[in-house]
Amino acid sequence: MRKIAVIGLLALTATLVGTPSYAGGSHVTKPTLTGWAALPAGTFVAGSEPSGALVTGNLNGFTAPFADQPIQGFSGIVDNGDGTFDVLSDNGYGNQANSGDFLLRVQKLAPSFRTGTVDVLGGITLTDPDTKVPWKLTRADRVLTGADFDPESIVRAADGTYWIGDEFGPYLLHFDRAGRLLDAPVALPGVIAPETAARTGETATARSSKGFEGLALAPDGRHLYALLEGTVTGDPAGSLRLNEFDLRTRSYTGRRWAYQLDNPDFAIGDAITIANGRFLIIERDNGQGATAVTKKIYEATARGSVLDKRLVVDLMNVSNPRKLGGFGTTFTFPFQTIEDVVILDDRTIAVLNDNNFPFSTGRSATAADNNEWITIGLPRSLRPDKRLLP
């Protein structure tokens, strides 16, 4: 039986920043869970369009097609500074072929750690009304779908516009506050995903779904730093490129750094800026549930042409003395894909999973994962650049 969560505009009972919801400013001796909330897997955009007509396989209790668009796949996050967040949904159901009826969207959400719930306050659908994309889109009305792009990372520039990192190009995509594409997709020279290669006849130099998983904004707002999820053909195994993009010239500067995965089979889930030359990066294995072993967040510091790493949090070993979320005194985050990290203050971060609705089963082998939202208190300050905080 299909589960539907009725959603709409809900009043916030408290703002996130500066409240005990995430123990801001508290001092702990090891990474400690300070907040937990979840958005049920069966949460849909009420009154939207049907979706999932081409989805097959084990749907873990759900039946496709769905009458509405699911709110799922948290792949990037922007802090609005008022207790609400803009959260990016990914391409839909895992690939280009089955996601043509999934509408790309930025959701506006608000976690309530007091109740352990996440309120859905609205959102925007991504479109290309001015024909900035030069090739044929899936829909004639130029509403963007998961067959057109695979958005995996997001930042908001000083002018309020969004920059989104895509995996099908990989491309950088620039949208206004209403979700309208402002510029033609910007390709990364020398890196071609299979989805682009199939359209253009070029030779792919990257694997599918290994494009821009991380996108970080410089403290002064001048540059973006786009991190690939996978290794480019010819690069050392497990080495990922972090590329600098100039927002004034709308071009890559040619500067780049190498991030080395702990294992070539691992992937990154997100990358954000802490300060000039310093980043938080999620690194993960491909396991879930009982097979999840490596789910970590590193601080990466640019030194020459490489990024040095320091472990900040092992997400499989987080202290939980208050037993938040109904879990034990050691909290684990055993999801296949963990794709969102945001700095709340100098000692507190929030982390969200991508539940790959309805496929991921990190909490239960037979039930589709919820989207969980956690906050973690850190034993030492991240020393973030204040310009990056809302």
UniProtKB/TrEMBL annotation:
InterPro entries reported for this sequence: Phytase-like_dom
First and last residue of the signal peptide: 1-23
Keyword terms, alphabetized: Signal
Tree of life domain: Bacteria
Domain Phytase-like: 69-357
One Pfam family recorded for the sequence: Phytase-like
Protein name as it appears in the record: Phytase-like domain-containing protein
